[in-house]
Amino acid sequence: MSLEVDIAVIGAGVVGLAIASELAREGVFVLEKNESFGHEASSRNSEVVHAGIYYHEDSLKAKLCLEGNILLYEFCAKHGVGCKRVEKIFSAVEEGEMEGLEKLYNQARKNGVEGLRFISRDELKKLEPNVEGIAGVLSPPSGIVDSYSYMKALYNKASEKVDFVFNCEAIGIEKINSKYKVTISDSEGISSFTTPILINAAGLHAEKIAELAGTDIPKTGYKTYLLKGDYFSIQPKKWGLIKRLIYPVPGKVGVGIHNCIAIDGRERLGPDEYYVDQIEYSVNANKKQLFYDYAKNLFPFIEIEDLEPESSGIRPMLQSPGESLKDYVIRHEEDRGFPGLINLIGIESPGLTSSLAIGKYVKGIVKEISG
Residue 156 belongs to what domain range? Predict the structure, then answer.
């Protein structure tokens, strides 16, 4: 007879960890195909704490980012995780970007983001003498976080009661009456367990897990696309010349290449955005000119020789190339014939910022299922 657990979570990225932390009790089981937590999208990002500016006011992305921003700062302070508000400035470098800057500001106000304000060129130069721009929008709630230390704190909190199994991949899911039989592959071979509540938090692989569970991917619209972004490091001699996160005014595609400041002071530029067909993390060194061309508009002190290829990350997007931004899917699939199955699909940026709020949201669904 196979093992039975109360709740199973597939995926130990930052969202899976946050869910496990919220649900922390005996009988919760988290399986992760990698050797430890957070090996994919959760550890390959800008480590920015977002304010909730870009997204439609009725979206889960906006609501959960706004809530998650507050929860993240509180959690990190309580658990000694490196995290701080450094502010963000969206800088317009030409008159044609002023309309976009105003649109950005208005969307942020609709979303309930507090403290945003327009700043003039003089104030921009006073705050950031080494940044170019004719005007900007200042975002006080924005910040940075040590993502690994944050995930480690979530893991430590959850693992007091939750069972984590690493190097363990779900290879089959079968609905049997009111439960799910999950077949797994690990170092000991093939085995299985059953659970009445199955939470799919598999990140880049969430579509695959949903399909294994019986979800009709075309019918539900759960197909995901891989959006890759590369980062280039900035030479240490140029570190410290910018104190805040500096973003361009968003264009038609993505938020644009910006500076990233790590808790330990390291600085880099990125990410760019382009769709790929497979998960692969090499960085094309020939992009140096492209990154320099983007950077020099905002950061005139950067020279091309200051840049070197550093790392890359991949996000699971629900929109295909050319489609408009789509919202997160966080859904109990009972009405589709799968009671107890909770799918989280397309959890990309601002997933890191939103993670604790996502954990609370999923906990609410679990409570409804459990009665």
Answer: 3-43+149-222+325-370
